[in-house]
Design a protein that fits this description.
Order of helices and strands: HHHHHHHH
Number of strands: 0
Shape: globular
Distance between the termini: 11 Å
Strand content: under 5%
Number of helices: 8
Structural class: mainly alpha
Radius of gyration: 17 Å
Largest sheet: none
Length: 223
C-alpha cells in the first residue's frame, strides 16, 4: 500500500469530523467553510490516484465529484444556495451515471430501478406537502436522477458479481444507497421537520457515499 493510500482515509475522517462538529455546534462555525469543501477535495484526491481501468470512467467520476464540491460550497448558505446546490448535485448524479454506463448498459437489470423507484416515490410522497411550489419541478428532476444513479450502481454491482471487480462494485452499490439515505435525511430535515443532529447523519452518509463511489475506480499500479 502506498503512503497516499494510508493517509487519505485518515485525512478524510479527520476533516469530516471537524466539519461535522462545526455543523452541529461543537466547534467554531467558521471551520465548516474550510473543512466541508476540504473533505470532498480529499475524496477527489482519492479518486485522482486511481485509474478506473477505463479513462472515461475515471473522468466522469472526477467530474461528478467536482460538481459535488460545487454543491457543497453552495449549501454552506442553506437558503440562498439550495437551488444552485440542487442543480450541482443533479449534474453530479448525471456524471456518475455516465461513468457507470461506460462499463454496464443502462438499466441492464430492471429490479434495481423498480426498487429505487418505490423508495424514491415513497419518500417523495411523504415530503411533497412541504416542498414549495417553486421547487417542485427541480426536486422531482433531482429525485429521478438520484434514483437512477443509485439503481445503475446496483446494476453494475450485480453485473460484476463474478469477476475481479466484485468487491469494488459492491462498494459502488453501497455508495448509491448511502447517497439516497443522505439526501432523504436532508430533504426530511428541510421539508418535513428538523431532525436531531441532522448534519451528523446527513454528512456522515454523504461522505461515506462519495468515498465508496471513488473507491469503485480501479487502483492505479505504482511501480
Amino acid at each position: 500500500m502506498s503512503r497516499g493510500a494510508r493517509w487519505l482515509p485518515l485525512a478524510v475522517m479527520l476533516s469530516a469530523a471537524v466539519a461535522i462538529g462545526s455543523a452541529i455546534g461543537a466547534g467554531p462555525a467558521e471551520c465548516l467553510f474550510i473543512f466541508k469543501p476540504l473533505t470532498t477535495l480529499l475524496v477527489v484526491a482519492h479518486a485522482w490516484r486511481r485509474d478506473g481501468g477505463v479513462p472515461l470512467v475515471r473522468r466522469w467520476v472526477l467530474v461528478g465529484l467536482l460538481f459535488s464540491l460545487g454543491g457543497d460550497v453552495a449549501l454552506l448558505w442553506p437558503q440562498q444556495g439550495f437551488l444552485p446546490g440542487l442543480v450541482s448535485f443533479l449534474l453530479a448524479h448525471l456524471s456518475y451515471l455516465m461513468a457507470f454506463t461506460r462499463t454496464t448498459r443502462f438499466a441492464a437489470r430492471a429490479w434495481p430501478f423498480a426498487a429505487y423507484a418505490l423508495v424514491a416515490g415513497g419518500i417523495l410522497s411523504q415530503l411533497w406537502p412541504g416542498v414549495p411550489a417553486a421547487l417542485r419541478v427541480p426536486v422531482v428532476a433531482y429525485v429521478l436522477c438520484l434514483a437512477a444513479m443509485a439503481a445503475q450502481a446496483a446494476v453494475v454491482w450485480r453485473a460484476s458479481a463474478h469477476n475481479g471487480s466484485a468487491r469494488r462494485a459492491a462498494l459502488l452499490a453501497w455508495g448509491g444507497a448511502l447517497f439516497v439515505c443522505s439526501d432523504a435525511l436532508l430533504a426530511t430535515n428541510k421539508f418535513h421537520g428538523a431532525l436531531p443532529l441532522a448534519s451528523l447523519w446527513i454528512l456522515t452518509t454523504y461522505w461515506a457515499a462519495q468515498w465508496c463511489i471513488a473507491s469503485w475506480l480501479k487502483p492505479r499500479e505504482f511501480g
